[in-house]
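In the previous chapter we treated chains in isolation. Here, by contrast, the input contains two separate entities that must be folded as one system, with a combined length of 374 residues.
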Amino acid sequence: MSGNFKVAVLVGSLRKDSVNRKLALAMTEMAPPGLRFQLVDIGQLPFYNEDNDDPALSEWQDFRDTMKKVDAVLFVTPEYNRSVPAVLKNALDVGSRPMGESVWDGKPGAVVTASPGGIGGFGANHHLRQSLVFLNVPTLQQPEMYIGNAYSLFDEQGKLNNDGTRQYLKGFLAKFTDWIEANSQAA
Amino acid sequence: MSGNFKVAVLVGSLRKDSVNRKLALAMTEMAPPGLRFQLVDIGQLPFYNEDNDDPALSEWQDFRDTMKKVDAVLFVTPEYNRSVPAVLKNALDVGSRPMGESVWDGKPGAVVTASPGGIGGFGANHHLRQSLVFLNVPTLQQPEMYIGNAYSLFDEQGKLNNDGTRQYLKGFLAKFTDWIEANSQAA
């Protein structure tokens, strides 16, 4: 049954001390046997501009090459001004081009948003989901992951400080594994 | 009555031949007497990262200084993957920081989206509006501006090729002028 799926993890914050990066690392450390997580950097990608896409900028080409080799994608992002941070939106746009060669098409995905406040990045989560509809990324619906008060979940070493959150993330990752198995083009 | 308002025009595409840029220039050329339009470049702004904001990167500071001097803002943007292009979202994010010093707060705005297809950038238009709620930009509601089949409206010199569109944009700019007068902090 269980495949061995490569999963790109894209983090929507560039801050060194980002709570979303901590969350992404925590999930990476507790990856189920069937999933191999790979953090993919997106901060070095220039803004998408079709004028520079024939031939493609090398940063764009490298990113596309990396993404074409993975079986699924996990987005872990904060919310900026009730929407998706530009750095993550740019990765979506770069990966979607040139027309007909999108790296996203048909690749299973999941969205996790985390924020210091109570809303847990709901605005970013659903703006991202709207783009994922267009990009034809079959996206895990439940469990939804809006992680509020996120700073309180990590200790000073950046590790999860409680077992409840750990179990919650484990449950999510199990569902995500099932989702990838059901929807993967590589299965 | 009529004030003399400075209006920043932010274009969400970096392409030289962008139809949204043509549209922005067309509106600039037909600016009503009370408005002075100023195209503000946003393509040079690095992705927002709080780690680089104390002191601020010079590109961010220059942009903030420019935006603090204008009375209103006009967004003219394509849609990328059913949402706002990263370059424009980044400008919103950069201008919104540091906390408590947002350049957007209370500044009247309007949104125009244009696309080659029939939907006219509806997805980008309303994602942008969601951010503008949070940023407290009083945003012109009507007339909504979803400009579909936009390539067909310009000639080979990049000028509007028909009087109907010209009148339509003039009507929009008149309403926008009223909106700025009613909502401007500088009034």
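The radius of gyration of chain A is 16 Å. The beta strands of chain A are 5-11, 35-39, 72-77, 109-114, 145-147. Compare these points with the single-chain example from earlier in the chapter.
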